[in-house]
Fold Translation initiation factor IF-3.
Amino acid sequence: MSSREANAIAQERHLDLVEISPQARPPVCKILDYGKYRYEQQKREKEARKKQKVFEIKEVKLRPGIEDHDFGVKFKNAARFLEEGNKVKVTIMFRGREMSHPELGEALLVRMAEELGPAAVVEKKPKLEGRNMTMIVAPKSK
């Protein structure tokens, strides 16, 4: 039917004429309460957002000269973050002359990845960015 006829019918029923698919020839329209339609659409979008899993990135910071016990504490924190389902960004901070030995920082990051091993996947390999070397570890999917 023509758009004028459809519009007249919609006004008689106190409803709206809503274009559903404008690319179709002829365009497809529907007579409905637009306010109610938008409300239901927003409810569906909100429900879909609830079901999404949001990853949070937690950070663990280390220094190249870290002692074994301190490393163990940082490792436990990273493992706990992974168990909670969060990604972990492991950062090695270099100061002064420590910058001349980035291989020490890389060795620490590799050690952390090996110890987290079965529970984690290295998402981003160790990379030196300015005075920091970072690596991102994600939990293994079940």
User: Anything to note?
Assistant: Strands lie at 16-21, 28-32, 57-62, 87-93, 120-129, 132-139. Residues 57-139 form a domain with the Translation Initiation Factor IF3 fold (CATH 3.30.110.10). The helical segments are 3-12, 34-50, 68-83, 102-116.
